[in-house]
UniProtKB/TrEMBL annotation:
It comes from the Bacteria. Belongs to the ROK (NagC/XylR) family. InterPro entries: ATPase_NBD, ROK, WH-like_DNA-bd_sf, WH_DNA-bd_sf. The lineage of its organism: Bacteria, Bacillati, Actinomycetota, Actinomycetes, Mycobacteriales. PANTHER family: BIFUNCTIONAL UDP-N-ACETYLGLUCOSAMINE 2-EPIMERASE_N-ACETYLMANNOSAMINE KINASE, ROK (REPRESSOR, ORF, KINASE) FAMILY. Pfam families: ROK. This is ROK family protein.
Length: 374
């Protein structure tokens, strides 16, 4: 993830916590001299702090001054735009969620939703302490996202087409804005703070109102020239009972509401966890999506697949995924070794939105700081 030596040093400090420069050099795979001058630049940029001098282990050798992330003084604002609500959060550069709030959509009109984002981002930013630096605004959203322009090309559920999210939010908040699809953004968050640290090849399979995947090879997330890599809705066409389009959260909710009353998807999940007949909806989906997971695993042969599905807490759902993978994976993948849930239970989408801008910061920190300061 880190192209330059400054990024390698910053990422090493993230991995290690506070550490002397000699340890950082070994972890980052760069020379001690490189760590010395890059850490000095990162301290000047406000991303690292130099801790008080401490004695070497056993009192042998010269004392050293560890370096650490300045997580207290550096945060990003994170916005996730979902089917029914926005989430606005504050996340520090060490990956801790400091604040999170949700606001339901009044309509699906893009600028109505984006105006709500502007209102809440301004309010949340105004409540931060004066010494805290906002390093950017990350926006994660479903559908196809043009990361170069920061526009939502297409979002089938919200019916958005060519919405210039970055331009609109940047002009109204005064913040540097980065936009990406929620699934690619989840890979970034998992690479920085979760189970995909150090993983060269990986997949995130997202099963929600939008069903899609993100693929990383050699640590790099693939986007594609039409920004559609990971669009798997028609991967298998139809299953025995329904098309993949009918497997989204609200599609399951609509089916369940035909026979009972449920307030929302969490209400449906809770009823299924409690052992009701609602469990069958999630088991059927897991069986179908397990076949999709098997196809993705055979295509990429990844070190890890992160599975995100709100139905995972439902008894038998993870087993259904595993059984489908075992039945359909031609390479004989062992689901227990490859598939893991998200590293951020209850905060997946917040961390995804933060990951959009944090991956830029840790990839090329000095140039990102300069660019965002303009």
């Amino acid at each position: 993830m880190a192209n330059g030596s400054a990024g390698a040093v910053l990422r090493a400090v993230l991995d290690l916590g506070s550490a002397p420069r000699s340890v950082v050099a070994k972890h980052a795979g760069v020379s001690p001299a490189t760590v010395t001058w890059q850490s000095r630049a990162l301290v000047e940029a406000g991303l690292l702090v130099e801790l008080p001098e401490t004695a070497s282990p056993g009192g042998v050798g010269r004392p050293h001054s560890p370096i650490a992330l300045d997580s207290v003084g550096n945060v990003v604002l994170a916005v996730h735009i979902a089917a029914v609500q926005i989430t606005v959060a504050v996340v520090d550069i060490a990956g801790s969620v400091l604040h999170s709030e949700q606001v339901p959509h009044r309509t699906h009109a893009p600028y109505d939703i984006l105006d709500t984002v502007v209102e809440r981002v301004r309010a949340v930013g105004a409540n931060l302490a004066e010494h805290v630096r906002i390093r950017g605004l990350g926006v994660a959203v479903g559908g196809r996202v043009d990361t170069a322009t920061g526009s939502v090309v297409d979002h089938s559920y919200l019916r958005w087409h060519d919405v210039p999210v970055r331009e609109y939010l940047g002009a109204r908040t005064g913040l540097p804005v980065s936009v990406d699809s929620h699934t690619r953004a989840t890979v970034y968050a998992e690479q920085l703070y979760g189970r995909l640290r150090g993983s060269a090849s990986s997949i995130v399979l997202f099963v929600g109102n939008v069903i899609d995947a993100a693929i990383a090879v050699h640590g790099r997330v693939h986007c594609g020239p039409r920004f559609g890599a990971g669009s798997i809705t028609r991967l298998l066409g139809t299953t025995d009972r329904f098309a993949l389009e009918a497997l989204g959260d609200h599609a399951l909710l609509a089916r369940a509401r035909a026979v009972g009353h449920y307030d929302d998807v969490p209400d449906l999940v809770a009823a299924a966890v409690a052992g009701g007949g609602e469990r069958d909806y999630f088991l059927e989906r897991a069986t179908a999506m397990g076949e999709v997971a098997a196809a993705l695993i055979d295509l990429i042969d990844p070190e890890a697949l992160i599975l995100i599905d709100r139905g995972l807490p439902v008894p038998g759902v993870r087993d259904a995924y595993d059984e489908a993978v075992r039945a359909h994976s031609a390479i004989g993948a062992n689901p227990a070794e490859v598939i893991s849930p998200s590293s951020f239970p209850g905060q997946v989408l917040v961390m995804a939105a933060a990951g959009v801008v944090l991956q830029e910061l840790f990839d090329d920190p000095l140039n990102t700081v300069v660019a965002h300061a303009v």
